[in-house]
Amino acid sequence: MDELRLYTWIAVGGTFGLYFFIAWWARAGSTSEFYAAGGGITPLQNGMAIGADWMSAASFISMAGLIAFLGYGGSVFLMGWTGGYVLLALCLAPYMRKHGKFTVPEFIGDRFYSKTARIVAVVCLIIASITYIIGQMKGVGVAFSRFLEVPYDTGLYIGMAVVFVYATLGGMKGITYTQIAQYVVLITAYTIPAIFISLQLTGNPIPQLGLGSTLADGSGVYLLDKLDMVVSDLGFKEYTTSSLGSVEMFAYTMSLMIGTAGLPHVIMRFFTVPSVKAARQSAGYALVFIALLYTVAPAVGAMARFNLMNTIEPAAGQNLDYAERPQWFKDWERTGLLAFEDKNGDGKIQYTADNETNEMVKVDRDIMVLANPSIANLPNWVIALVAAGGLAAALSTAAGLLLAISSAISHDLMKGVLMPDMSEKNELAASRIVMTISILFAGYLGLNPPGFAAGTVALAFGLAASSIFPALMMGIFSKKMSSKAAIAGMCAGLGCTMLYVFQHKGIMFIPGTSFLGGMEPNWFLGISPNAFGSVGAVINFAVAFLVLKATGPAPVNIQNMVDNFRSPHGKIAAAHDH
Amino acid sequence: MENTKSYWQENLRLIFICLIIWFVVSFGFGLLLVEPLNEFRLGGYKLGFWFAQQGSIYTFVGLIFWYTKKMNELDKKHNVEES
């Protein structure tokens, strides 16, 4: 076994051992511990757990790669996936915590005094969470197959087994403490290579500052200026100004922001803290922990792009001989994620924006973070750490999503609607069984990824943005908002968004069924299906207020309930004496 | 009742102020005004680019803590703290 694989096994094995130990130590004994960790998590702990819950395989592996190739256009992900926390902290979390229930559908059901509303919310939650979880399961499989050279399926089974142990045993309590550990693992694994690379390129150890510094080669040229020059010389768009179009960027950023604020597995985490004050605080801490990664990501992206261009063409016109390509190049060629084709037969690599002459025929965006340490010649233990970090990111998000799904089914559907007189003990058993089934189902989807896996981000954020977020906002900020109006709004927002995504990407993403075609000229105002959730949200608000005007306000007892959760004063219906 | 009402009004005012700042740093400086701001520089960063990829995120963090602090004061002032 070579040194890198040995280190990787140690890093992955060690962190998994730690997760198991925590799961055993923090096992859950009651439904309130299972769903909401007994309401006894401190804001700092909760912030860290939210960070791990939130930062998925997509944040850890894909985002910096997207930024590397989109440049300024990648800002939509940076602002979109952080700005939502401001909305959560100001507009949603404190009031939902005061109301004091376990799940998002339960809040919606109470506020809109309707089982139908609760069921609509459960359906949105399950679709959004399942589409999201497929990506995590794929991430686990890929990380194992690339770094430990075990087959993809075996990697997936190992991942499923680990999640199974700590999620079913510990519920929210076990997941929270494991996520804290996973946060530490993932942030270390993300920043250490970034610090090394920033030091190499600019001499500044802080990546956020390194990105704005001059190169360490003594030329006195700023890194970003040099990068702009290199990429535009080869015909690519200038790095710091390459926009996706302003309407599209606006709509996309907004969709991601309100989608973030509406994703149930994130909101649910705010039910674990003991008070309203703590709910506000934990949103702040969460964003600090998230920002630690999100402000480093632009540096990782830009520096990875810089190193990649530099390896292939160290100086203008001096292209790398294919025969002399470095080891990482060969490793990634084997996976098929990097491909070279010698079009002009000169044995050298030309990488340009022109399809006719470009010889780097495939550079998968997802490899940038994983390949980054080897491109920069970092020591093997750093590469091993990145593998453990990627797995921590995927597993922690998967666990949070599984908990959201199982609580929606066992608590909202079974206990709330079908069998209201189920005992606590049975409910706890039911939620463990549902969680087991969800893990098996998610594993199955990871093994047989449906054709629509690539379009799922659009669907998850679109659903949350167009249905759940507006319903919660109106429930809190409009006292008169009635059940009929809210349900009509949710269905309209959800329906339009789904229709738009499907008409451009195919019904359930089946190729050939897109009745308007995926072509850009057909986009409404030039807005891509990924960015349409914000339009869906506007439709949701508009329909709800029209129906409210036509059908009259919510009853007085509901308006009083709203008054009650708007103020921290009075008895908090604590999640633990439910 | 009067107290609850004015508590909620002041809370709404705070939220409104925060959301304006939230909008200005991200959608304003980072997106709509990015081109004029890129004429200015912050070290190696073009200013608009910096807001889009760094500055907006720092502001978001600051906003949440400022709001939390203000709300704690407001809770005290109106005597609606949790028991």
Architecture overview:
Chain B: It comes from Thalassotalea eurytherma. Chain B: The chain crosses the membrane at residues 12-35, 47-67. Chain B: This is Sodium symporter small subunit domain-containing protein. Chain B: InterPro entries: Na_symporter_ssu. The complex is a heterodimer of chains A (578) and B (83). Chain A has 578 residues and is mainly α. Chain A has helices spanning 3-25, 31-36, 43-54, 57-70, 75-99, 104-111, 115-147, 152-202, 207-210, 223-233, 246-262, 264-267, 276-294, 297-312, 327-335, 367-375, 380-418, 424-447, 456-477, 483-505, 533-551, 556-566; strands spanning 338-339, 362-363. Chain A has one domain: Sodium/glucose cotransporter (Up-down Bundle), CATH 1.20.1730. Chain A has 22 helices and two strands. In chain A, helix 4 crosses helix 17, helix 10 packs across helix 14 (297-312) and helix 19 (456-477) runs antiparallel to helix 20 (483-505). Chain B has 83 residues and is mainly alpha-helical. Chain B has one domain (2-77). Chain B is built from three helices and two strands. Chain B has a two-stranded antiparallel sheet with strand order 1-2. The two termini of chain B are 19 Å apart. In chain B, 39% of the residues are buried. Classes of the chains: A mainly alpha (578), B mainly alpha (83). Chains A and B meet through helix 5, helix 10, helix 11 and helix 13 of A and helix 1, strand 2 and helix 3 of B.
